[in-house]
Amino acid sequence: MIATNEIRCYYVDVCTNNSKMRIFMITEILSKIDDVMYYPILMIIMGIAGIYFTIRTKAVQIRLFPESIRLLMEPPEDKKNVSSLQAMLVSTASRVGTGNIVGVSTAICLGGPGACFWMWVMCIIGASSAFIESTLAQIYKRKNPDGECYGGPAYYIEKALRAPIIASIFCVFLIATYAVGFNLLCSYNLQSTFATYSFYNPKVTPIIIGSILAVLTGYCLLGGGKRIVKLTSLIVPVMGISYVIISLIVIIYNIKSVPSMFMLIFKDAFNFKAIFGGISGSCMVYGIKRGLYSNEAGVGSAPNASATAKVSHPAKQGLVQTLSVYIDTLLLCTATALMCLASGVERSEAVNGAPYVQNAISTVFGKVGPTFITVAMILFAFTTLLGNLYYVDNALIFLNKKRHPSQLFMRCFHLACAGVVLLGAVIPMNAAWAAADITMGGMTIINLPVCMILGKVAINSLKDYEKQRKEGKNPTFKARDIGLDENELDFWK
After folding, report:
1. Which end is more exposed in the chain, N or C (fewer Cβ atoms within 10 Å of the end residue's Cβ)?
2. Closest to 155 (Cα-Cα) out of 145, 459, 77, 143
3. What are residue 16's phi and psi, to 5 degrees?
4. Looking at residue 1, what is its pLDDT?
5. Cβ-based burial of 21 (10 A; exposed 0-12, middle 13-18, buried ≥19)
6. Under a CB-based contact definition with an 8 Å cutoff, are residues 386 and 462 in contact?
7. What are the E-state strand segments in 338-425?
8. What is the DSSP letter of 152?
9. CA 211 → CA 179, 190, 375, 486, distances in Å?
10. For the chain, which ranges sit under pLDDT 50?
11. Which DSSP state fits 428?
12. CA Rg, the chain, in Å?
């Protein structure tokens, strides 16, 4: 006869095993969808769009780089409005995050050093897509009763394409991405940095960290959009500059290995046998995935922030947003990649993520290194969570027929978002990455084709801007100058 305690233990074991099996199956399904979505679908869409925009704009992202820097410091016409710099910092707050550390590390450990090269390629090509989407957001932005401006892909899809259903689907994907996918991953990445400490208990520590982060995020959401702008404008530059300085110190300390490091990157990037032998796990696909996750060029997120800026010409904000892509990938992602590769520490699947970066920085800073990475991850995670939910608010307003949802609804929604943050700290790594990749991919699959259809409008705006600059003017935009019906727009009349 079997004792009651034995039956109870058997039941618990069966339930536990069943739960693990369900989690494993869900993770496998998400991973399969993720693989197909990025190869070949998104790889083709992103490549074609980026090359097309680069050619049509005559490489605006490179050619007018000095102009982008000049525009960054241009003050808004009205001090009450959001400046180009503030709008760029909000989009950068969302772009610059845990992906700059953990995402790059994962790409190198699982895909190889060549992933770094493909990140650079997608960054430079993708910056042209960032110009187009942000310029379109400015042209088709809307005006609220207080005179402030807002907008994003949903608004130019609705107004210019006259496709409200597609616009609504885009908003659903945006909410799924920034309230669920990215926040799950952000929370997981943060808690994973604590795994290097002796006090870390995989059954308890993730729950504690997730709970603290969830409470802090929920509290800050009570401040609203303007508070988010002010907070991120202070934190993002400080955390970014500090991280780059530390990375440079590690690189300089290992300066003798830098030439061989670059040879390794380029050799691996063009190892076509390795690339096409296992395409879903190749350096090319990992570089594209993690590059897109990090800089979000063409995803359709940054235009939501771009539309809030008060500028005299739409092309100004488009040019400023290209800098955000460069800051994220060419500066911060590259800092992580070169620091890790120059250090010479072992890279493998076992250390992918935060441990690889922490091991690299420890070669120079000892035990202080991992602590710095933990602090940087806390700051990156915090600003990413706030920046993400700033975008979500815009999508909710669109789905609610351009009205702010009720206070009760928003409180319940923010509680749900805090719950997502808590969940992200305890789910498996593969599930977190796949969920973020899939939801982000859905946004990109909608936004980039729309940008290609409407691209002529943004390109004509760029031509108008350059024409006025050559005439020595401070460019001002009027819709009729590029053949648009100004009566259909809230601005530019």
Report:
1. N
2. 143
3. -65, -45
4. 44
5. exposed
6. no
7. none
8. -
9. 16, 12, 17, 50
10. 1-2, 4-5, 7-15, 225
11. -
12. 23
According to the model, what pLDDT value does residue 11 have? 39
Tokens encoding 212 = 């603290």
Cα(331)–Cα(249) distance, rounded to whole angstroms? 14
Q: How far apart are CA 101 and CA 333, in angstroms?
A: 7
What pTM does this model have? 0.85
Q: Which residue intervals of 141-180 are DSSP H helices?
A: 153-160, 164-175
- Phi and psi dihedrals of 405, rounded to 5? -60, 160
Per-residue confidence (pLDDT) for residue 56, from 0 to 100: 96
Q: How far apart are CA 123 and CA 297, in angstroms?
A: 8
Calculate the CA 170 to chain-centre distance. Answer: 16
Residue 113 corresponds to which tokens in the numbers above? 């050093």
295: amino acid identity, one letter: N
Q: Do 141 and 491 contact (CB within 8 A), yes or no?
A: yes
What are the tokens at 316? Answer: 């100004």
Please report how many Cα atoms fall inside a 13 Å half-sphere around the Cα of residue 218, on the Cβ side: 18
In whole angstroms, give the CA distance from residue 407 to residue 419: 18
Could you tell me the two tokens for 13?
């074991």
Q: Would you give the distance in Å from CA 191 to the centre of its chain? A: 19
Residue 227, pLDDT score: 58
Those residues with Cβ within 8 angstroms of residue 381's Cβ, 6 or more apart along the chain or in another chain: 97, 98, 186, 187, 189, 190, 213
In terms of Cα–Cα distance, which of 296, 295, 324 is closest to 309?
324
- Residue 493 CB-half CA count within 13 A: 8
Rounded CA separation 223/118 (Å) = 39
The CA distance from 295 to 488, in Å, is 32
pLDDT value of position 448: 95
Per-residue tokens: 46: 């992103």
The residue type of 38 is Y
Quote the CA–CA distance of 316 and 308 in Å, as a whole number: 13
